Amino acid sequence: QLQLVESGGGLVQAGGSLRLSCAASGHFFSSYAMGWFRQAPGKEREIVAGITWSGGGTYYADSVKGRFTISRDNAKNTVYLQMNSLKPEDTAVYYCAADLFRSTVLRVDQNEYDYWGQGTQVTVSS
């Protein structure tokens, strides 16, 4: 079982940057693929980025490609989301999630993810 805690959210102006962190406690963090999801007011939760258990494969939603970078440090049980060139439409609650799926292929369906953090608010002002 994993417990996930996100941090790093906040208020930033358009064009700015933030780095989100997700610290995991529990066992076998390195066995889990990790994903970052977001949910804006009135919208469904959507995947933003994902990274395989080894870190060798990544996935990005089209809306964030070239601006966001996901990474992980298995020695620190932490996954990161570097967000650059932020836009007002990036405003949302951001969640990290863990998927016990050891594969080179990432799953993007949130229903496949086993554990979730509580979320961190990101607000981008225009």
Description:
With 126 residues, this protein is mainly beta. The protein is 0% helix and 50% strand. It contains no helices and 11 strands. It has strands spanning 2-7, 10-13, 18-26, 33-39, 46-51, 58-60, 68-73, 78-83, 92-99, 115-116, 120-125. Strands 2, 4, 5, 6, 9, 10 and 11 form a 7-stranded mixed beta sheet that branches. Strand 5 (46-51) and strand 6 form a beta hairpin. It is globular.
Give the SSE layout:
Layout: E1 2-7, E2 10-13, E3 18-26, E4 33-39, E5 46-51, E6 58-60, E7 68-73, E8 78-83, E9 92-99, E10 115-116, E11 120-125
Parallel strand pairs: 2-11
Antiparallel strand pairs: 1-3, 3-8, 4-5, 4-9, 5-6, 7-8, 9-10, 9-11
Concise summary:
The protein is mainly β.
Radius of gyration, whole Å = 13 Å
Percent of residues in beta strands? over 45%
Segments where pLDDT lies below 50 for 5+ residues?
none
The mean pLDDT is 95
How far is it from the N-terminal to the C-terminal residue, by CA?
Answer: 40 Å
Following the backbone from N to C, one meets helices and strands in this order, namely EEEEEEEEEEE
**Number of helical stretches of at least 4 residues:** 0
